[in-house]
């Protein structure tokens, strides 16, 4: 396998969040941070100085936002991967990011284990593509395009703590509902604890099968509900 160290540019206007990303990268083998940009303009200048393997990109920034910067990267055919790390949950934004070829999309706040997982996949992707000098067959191509978890796969391929039967049991109410459901509603329907439902719902959000909505109530805190993505 290649021992190439992947260079990372962090594009984040919040200094505390940017420093957190940098600390995460510092403990990941095979990656090194080559710069931190607070704005899209700064990022473009840094990208113009030399090749960058990976950009960790926020969307909401002053001036040039993350999507505009991503379009610029693609238009100039920069040989770089992009992982979105953002609070943006709007379906239109996520769809646009996918169309522009992001490697992954992480919602803030995210867990380090999720971040670590996507960096491992990116590293494996780079190594796998570099090792295929001539042609890839269909099976190999399918592996490249199968980063998201498939629910018909072998249960052993699911993350630790996620069981296929329970996953399907929790997913069913969302598939059957014409609208969004809260954790409490799903717990009532399935007879499972809210703690269990919450863990599986987080997994379904990360794997792109659910989207989150915030419902504001007349009294009390806003209520988060979840909608199945068909």
Number of strands: 7
Structural class: alpha/beta
What's the CATH topology label of the largest domain? Rossmann fold
Percent strand equals 15-25%
The CATH class of the largest domain, by name, is Alpha Beta
Structural Rg: 19 Å
Mean pLDDT: 83
What ranges have pLDDT less than 50 throughout 5 or more consecutive residues? 148-154
Describe the largest sheet: 5 strands, parallel
Q: What best-fitting shape do the alpha-carbon axes yield? A: globular
Strands ordered across the widest β-sheet: 2-1-3-4-5
Q: Report, as a whole number of angstroms, the end-to-end distance.
A: 38 Å
Question: How many helices in DSSP terms?
Answer: 9
Can you give a write-up of this model?
The strands form two sheets. Strands 2-1-3-4-5 form a five-stranded parallel β-sheet, sandwiched between helices. It has a two-stranded antiparallel ribbon with strand order 6-7. The model is unreliable at 148-154 (pLDDT under 50). The chain is 44% helix and 17% strand. By secondary structure, the chain is α/β, with parallel strands linked by helices. The protein has two domains: 6-144, Rossmann fold (3-Layer(aba) Sandwich), CATH 3.40.50.2300; 155-228, Arc Repressor Mutant, subunit A, CATH 1.10.10.10. The radius of gyration is 19 Å and the shape is globular. The relative contact order is 0.09. The protein contains nine helices and seven strands. β1 (6-11), α1 and β2 form a beta-alpha-beta unit.
